[in-house]
Amino acid sequence: MKHLLPELHYAPDALAPGMSRETIEFHHGKHLQAYIDNLNRLIAGTQYEDMSLEDIVMKSGGAVFNNAAQAWNHTFFFDTLTPVPVPMPERLVRKLDEAFGSRENFLGEFAKAATGLFGSGWAWLAEDKDGRLSIVQKQNAGNPMTDGMTPLMTVDVWEHAYYIDYRNRRADYVSACLKLTDWEKVAQRLV
Ligand code: MN
Which UniProt keywords are given for this protein, alphabetically ordered (predicted)? Predict the structure, then answer.
């Protein structure tokens, strides 16, 4: 099965100024495309060839995992962004209150985790098997699915995600991502 670049559900300039058209063109059009091209090349003729992207993430290691997980993570990240600000549904607010004390505390703790993640990686909001929410920092291509958790939303903190628009100001980029997050979609992912 050949994996294809997922289409964005918004125009490439729709997230500006939080995320510019140029960033989308490089990040989605070049970085994500490269992970997908690498993945297709790596899995040809192997046990992974006919697996879904999620199965490859769960079952592989090494370069196959790195490229598959980067493809999955980016697809999820871009899908969760929206040009139209979406209020947090009550159901999600209640779960965040439970886990973090308040929605504001969650946003602060998430921003701190994303901004403070050392090197390249992803900050996640994830739900465990008991329905508890937590913030998870993952290096490189890491994804909380491999720990048995359900990803609810994520922010990519690889430098390629923010250097065009924000240079070294990762905190400003993270804050923009939180404003561009479709919280309705996040709530729909609650198990
Ligand atoms: Mn990226």
Answer: Iron, Metal-binding, Oxidoreductase
